[in-house]
Amino acid sequence: MKVKTQDTIDVPTIEETETALKKLKNNKVPGTDNILAELLKIGSDRLEQWLKHKFSSMGINEEIPKEWLQGIICPLHKVTSWNVLTIEESLC
Questions:
Q1: In this structure, is the dihedral angle defined by the CA atoms of residues 51, 4, 61 and 63, taken in order, positive or negative?
Q2: How confident is the model at residue 33, as a pLDDT?
Q3: From start to end of 2-91, where are the E strands?
Q4: Per-residue DSSP letter, 25
Q5: What sign for the dihedral angle of Cα 38, 58, 31, 47?
Q6: Based on CB atoms within 10 Å of each CB, which residue in 5, 14, 16, 64 is the most buried?
């Protein structure tokens, strides 16, 4: 069940936050914050509470933190050899 605030914003519940964390894929490269999905998945109830609060305030304020908009894009050229792919990945 979603909790409505200001008659327009759906605030995610703890259960929805927990479900979203469980759906994160393992063995992926972290973002600019260097936090692995595995760490978020094994986080405590305090982490889920913090995320719920953060998402709620983002919905109410209609703002996304600047840091969350940053990313690293590293193009990989199509290759036929794993050795070349490893070299290209290490250059990123």
A1: positive
A2: 82
A3: 3-5, 9-11
A4: P
A5: negative
A6: 16
DSSP class of residue 44? -
Instruction: Using the Cα atoms of residue 66, residue 61, residue 17 and residue 10 in order, give the sign of their dihedral.
Output: negative
3-5 and 9-11 strand pairing: antiparallel
Average pLDDT over residues 44-70: 83
**Cβ(21)–Cβ(40) under 8 Å?**
yes
Q: Provide the token pair at 58.
A: 């983002």
Angle value at C-alpha 45, between 42 and 48, nearest 5 degrees: 85
- Which of helix, strand or coil describes residue 3? strand
How many domains, in total, are found in the chain? 1
DSSP 6-20: TTTEEEPPHHHHHHH
Helix (H) or strand (E) holding 36: none
Segments forming the whole domain that contains residue 18:
3-91
Instruction: Please give the mean pLDDT across all residues of the chain.
Output: 75
